[in-house]
Amino acid sequence: MNKPKFRAWDKINQKMYQVSSIHIEDEYMYLFDKNIYEGEFTRKNEDVILMQYTGLKDDSEEQFEIYEKSIVKVVDNQGDYFIGVVEYFADENYPAFDIHAKYYKGWYFESNVLSEAKQNDTLSIYVIGDIYTTPELLSGVE
After folding, report:
1. Among 68, 78, 77, 80, which Cα is nearest to 114's?
2. How confident is the model over 44-60, as pLDDT tens digits?
3. What is the pLDDT of residues 60-118, one digit of tens each?
4. Dist CA 43 CA 16 (whole Å)
5. C-beta atoms surrounding 74 within 10 Å
6. Residue closest to 96 by CA, chosen among 69, 70, 71, 114
7. Is residue 14 within 8 Å of 23, Cβ to Cβ?
8. In whole angstroms, what is the distance from residue 27 CA to residue 46 CA?
9. By C-alpha distance, which of 112, 133, 128 is closest to 49?
10. Distance from CA of residue 51 to its chain's centroid?
11. In this structure, are residues 12 and 47 in contact, taking their beta carbons and an 8 Å threshold?
12. For residue 70, what are the β-bridge partners?
């Protein structure tokens, strides 16, 4: 079982940070950039957008972690691809991370896109950005 892991978009600094701890009752969290032991600071929950780690890594050599709101490129073995945003669909009675169908018109998946991409030898998935630091990657996609 994966330990829950989060990152956060800091609305004040306009920067993505890792989350070391969340204090729900006191409504703040500890954030850090690269090293938890250097430069850790607090932010009110209202000043950040929290994103959960899916528990999956992409297919690049670096094996980037796939988070909610990551922009991913899904490529088949023919070189065809689509670009989409990883979303959490619990609000729609679908308790899973997935990519909305509006991003992959003309493609067919028997189940969740992320699970199929990770289990299918003919598909690869790559993190190419996120909606906060690289929104331009979605230009003309939706």
Report:
1. 68
2. 999 999 999 999 999 99
3. 999 999 999 999 999 999 999 999 999 998 877 777 899 999 999 989 988 889 999 99
4. 13
5. 23
6. 114
7. no
8. 8
9. 133
10. 7
11. yes
12. 130
Short-list 97, 1, 115, CA closest to 54: 97
Residue with tokens 């994103």: 51
Cα separations in angstroms, 113 against 17, 28, 30, 68, 85: 27, 33, 32, 14, 11
Give the Cα separation of 48 and 101 in Å (integer). Answer: 27
Query: Over the stretch 21-33, which tens digit does the pLDDT of each residue have?
Result: 999 999 999 999 9
Residue 127, beta-bridge partner list: 72
CA angle at residue 129 from 127 to 131, to 5 degrees? 125
Task: With residue 18 as reference, give the H or E element that holds it.
Answer: strand 15-23
Torsion (CA) 90, 93, 98, 103 in degrees, nearest 10: -120
- Separation CA 51–CA 58 (nearest Å): 17
The phi and psi torsions of 113 (rounded to 5 degrees) equal -60, -45
